[in-house]
């Protein structure tokens, strides 16, 4: 049973809302789908919203970190939005750092940040 | 009251099943959202270690009481190769899998009590407890 995460295009930006707990296969499929979609659409930026996610383990964190680096290689910028307090606390306690990542409180702020970054 | 439930870890999907069971138990036991996330994450890491290093094993989740305190105990056990150097695996950043798991020090920080018993060639049992404060 494989679920795929929908990736929406809005002008030059791709928007992803991760709505449910990610299993390994879904996370890896998402990595590939996002890069393909970027290639297809020539998107300049990506917002990944994690608001509904209530925990992130080291595997999911690694996949997300990889996605961010891969997206950077393809010349686009990523903003992660909606990380919940419990998720931020457990990630740091676990010893995981997502370095060089733009983050924002919610999708709205994330899009603002991304557009400013793209204009700069 | 010594309620106990378990998930056998054989495939990647069992990692998901184990952490879902853990989260439900933590919620039922009255833990707040941050502790629920800590317990769920710890189970996910321990289940992944079993899957990566031992191939198969088991996660047991138990409700425990001690001196009026109430908590949840996770027991992760396997009959895998065991841990060669226990002191090394408790160092931050030590990995033999190329960094797939956050490692044991991370899990230890998420929980209140943490104990490893491992015998090379025979297997590993990790016990981690979170108390309801």
TrEMBL record, chain A:
InterPro entries: Bact_StressResp_Reg (IPR051932), STAS_dom (IPR002645), STAS_dom_sf (IPR036513)
Signal peptide: none
Coiled coil: none
STAS domain: residues covered: 3-114
PANTHER family noted in UniProt: RSBT ANTAGONIST PROTEIN RSBS, RSBT ANTAGONIST PROTEIN RSBS-RELATED
Full protein name: RsbT antagonist protein RsbS
Organism of derivation: Sporosarcina luteola
Upper classification of the organism: Bacteria, Bacillati, Bacillota, Bacilli, Bacillales
Gene that specifies this protein: rsbS
Automatic annotation (TrEMBL), chain B:
Pfam families: HATPase_c (PF02518)
All residue ranges annotated as the Histidine kinase/HSP90-like ATPase domain in the record: 34-133
Record's keyword terms, sorted: Kinase, Transferase
Keyword Transcription (UniProt): no
Family matches, as InterPro entries: HATPase_C_sf (IPR036890), HATPase_dom (IPR003594)
Organism whose genome encodes this protein: Sporosarcina luteola
Protein name, entry field: Serine/threonine-protein kinase RsbT
GO molecular function: kinase activity
């Amino acid at each position: 049973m494989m679920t795929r995460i929908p990736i929406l295009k809005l002008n030059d930006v791709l928007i992803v809302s991760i709505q449910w707990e990610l299993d390994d296969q879904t996370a890896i499929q998402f990595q590939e789908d996002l890069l393909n979609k970027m290639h297809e659409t020539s998107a300049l930026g990506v917002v990944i919203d994690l608001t509904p996610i209530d925990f992130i383990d080291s595997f999911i964190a690694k996949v997300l970190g990889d996605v961010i680096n891969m997206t950077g290689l393809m010349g686009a910028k990523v903003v992660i939005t909606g990380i919940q307090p419990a998720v931020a606390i457990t990630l740091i306690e676990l010893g995981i750092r997502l370095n060089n990542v733009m983050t924002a409180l919610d999708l709205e702020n994330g899009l603002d940040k991304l557009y400013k970054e793209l204009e700069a | 009251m010594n309620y106990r439930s378990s998930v056998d870890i054989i495939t990647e999907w069992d990692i998901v099943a184990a952490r879902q069971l853990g989260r439900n138990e933590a919620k039922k036991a009255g833990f707040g959202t941050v502790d629920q996330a800590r317990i769920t994450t710890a189970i996910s890491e321990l289940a992944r270690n079993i899957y990566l290093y031992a191939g198969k094993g088991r996660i047991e989740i138990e409700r425990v009481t001690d001196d009026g305190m109430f908590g949840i105990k996770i027991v992760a056990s396997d009959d895998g190769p065991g841990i060669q150097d226990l002191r090394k695996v408790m160092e931050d950043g030590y990995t033999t899998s190329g960094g797939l798991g956050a490692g044991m020090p991370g899990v230890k920080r998420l929980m209140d009590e943490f104990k490893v018993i491992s015998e090379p060639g025979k297997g590993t049992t990790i016990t981690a407890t979170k108390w309801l404060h």
